[in-house]
Specification:
The chain is 85% helix and 0% strand. It is an all-alpha fold. It is globular, with a radius of gyration of 12 Å. The model has no long low-confidence stretch (mean pLDDT 97).
Length: 73
């Protein structure tokens, strides 16, 4: 399970970055991919007991939510 969460987080992050970098009408949906990545990495950090990563992903999830609000809402 840990390996799946790790790879899901990495893949979703890459997809989000590529979507935002494409600068197309679909770019805003990259924030949804980033949020999925943040949630996965948060879960991974919790499973591994890495508190610094938990905090980082909490902050990154907040920026993803801001991006979703500004681009999609």
């Amino acid at each position: 399970m840990t390996r799946f969460v790790e790879w899901f987080g990495a893949t979703a992050g890459v997809i989000g970055a590529l979507m935002l970098a494409s600068n197309t009408t679909w770019s805003g949906y990259g924030w949804l991919a980033f949020l999925a990545s943040n949630i996965a990495w948060f879960a991974y950090a919790a499973m591994q007991g890495v508190k610094s990563m938990l905090l980082m992903q909490l902050v990154f999830a907040t920026t993803s939510l801001i991006g979703i609000y500004r681009w999609l809402v």
